[in-house]
Amino acid sequence: MKAAMGYLAGLLFGLGLAISGMTDPARVLGFLDIAGAWDPTLMFVLGGAVVTTFIGYRLVWRRGAPLVGKAFQLPSRRDIDARLLGGAALFGIGWGLSGYCPGPAFASIGGLSAPLAAMLVAMLAGWYLARRW
Q1: Taking the model in full, what pTM does it have?
Q2: Which residues fall within 8 angstroms of residue 20, CB to CB, at 6 or more apart?
């Protein structure tokens, strides 16, 4: 049941990315181009996600326990270290250069292109290196 719920959540997330147009790297790069032809679409998608998450968390916390699982699994670390800052910087650089972040990249695999393949290979290499470090 836990795996099915994870699959359903991932499917819903991927559909949301596709419907909102966030799997198009040109749209993301247009959002990042504040000095040129700025596209505010991503701001509205992110704003909708923040509002939905805000309301959703309030509803979920009232339950006291998750529907699937024994307890909520929340991160316990709150420190900011060089690995976190370096990873965030690399993520931002990769996102700005390619127009993809991991969710839209995986959602776009059906239309695999050379830039998308390069981004996925770089992301997997970074993931592997972070695990070995």
Answers
A1: 0.69
A2: 41, 45
Distances (CA, A) of 10 to 2, 16, 97, 117: 12, 10, 25, 21
Structure tokens at 82: 């060089």
Q: Nearest 10 degrees: CA dihedral of 78, 9, 23, 125?
A: 50
When computed from its CA atoms, the radius of gyration of the chain, rounded to whole angstroms, is 17
**Residue among 104, 87, 126 nearest 20 (CA):** 104
Q: Measure the CA–CA gap between 118 and 105, rounded to whole angstroms.
A: 11
Closest CA to 31 of 22, 20, 42: 42
pLDDT tens sequence across 53-69:
999 989 988 988 888 88
Integer CA distances (angstroms), 52 to 4, 100, 101, in order:
22, 22, 20
